[in-house]
Amino acid sequence: MSIRLLSPAKINFGLRIVARRPDGYHEIETIFLPLDLCDDISVDWNAGPEIELRVSGAELPLGSANLAVRAAQAAAEALDLHRGVTIALHKRIPVAAGLGGGSSNAATTLLAIERLAQLTLPDALRHELALAIGADVPFFLNPTPALGRGVGEVLTPLSGIPALCWMLVAFPFGVSTPEVYREASARLTLPRQESSIAALLGPSGVVSRPPNDLESVTRRWHPEIELAQAMLHDLGAKVTGMSGSGPTVYGQFESRELAERAAVRAKAQLPRGARTIVAQSPASEG
Questions:
Q1: Is 91 among the catalytic positions?
Q2: Catalytic residue among 40, 44, 91, 136
Q3: CA-to-CA distance for 154 and 253, rounded, in angstroms?
Q4: Are 9 and 149 within one domain?
Q5: How confident is the model at residue 92 (pLDDT cuts 50, 70, 90)?
Q6: Catalytic hit among 10, 39, 91, 213
Q7: Taking burial as the number of CB atoms within 10 A of a residue's CB, which of 19, 106, 233, 266 is the most buried?
């Protein structure tokens, strides 16, 4: 019996650093928006005792350095499984792009193995396992528009958010998230009060451009990010920004048709290796 699930990307619509923590992490506030840009994950039993990962669509580590493998190991231990599992992962989400692909793969693998084993972890334990793998992983256990606090694991669902269309510019390079946070936080006076970042999205859509404390650092390292944002603005984006620590840039458009037209026009203006992706974030209940 094979279990197949979609593993969605996300964008961070704004990100503020609120405090430094003794463990090296940072307290933040951000808006998580899931996208209909998805990887495919299938899990099935295999004849051996080991966890095997097969990847197509990208070059990724196949051992415990891969978050999906770590999620499978955690699920097998928590569920007391004594059988081997094969994970087939087909990548569509750009790697190391600030879109949460690895975290999503981990959460989706955790949920898929529960279904494969026909067992259910307690919600608190599932959340604990997800957080031990990565700060963004808990969001993908139930990927709906949410305000994220703490290191991103304290999630408050956002109601009344409409479906929104996005055009993404994904660059052919990654950035070091810890280095971006370290340099960005060194410029801030911390701790500081939380803000009303959730008010930047409402029933009518985007209210204003969100702040991202990480953006100035990544833009300084990679000036093409600022150029891509200017291009998106010129192509009609209502608002532009960078997702998380980057380097992916987003523009929000009134419709998918307008976003797709912008993507076609953008291709001639982008540096070699950059990709355009049109995606939609879903409406939230309420």
A1: no
A2: 136
A3: 29
A4: yes
A5: very high
A6: 10
A7: 106
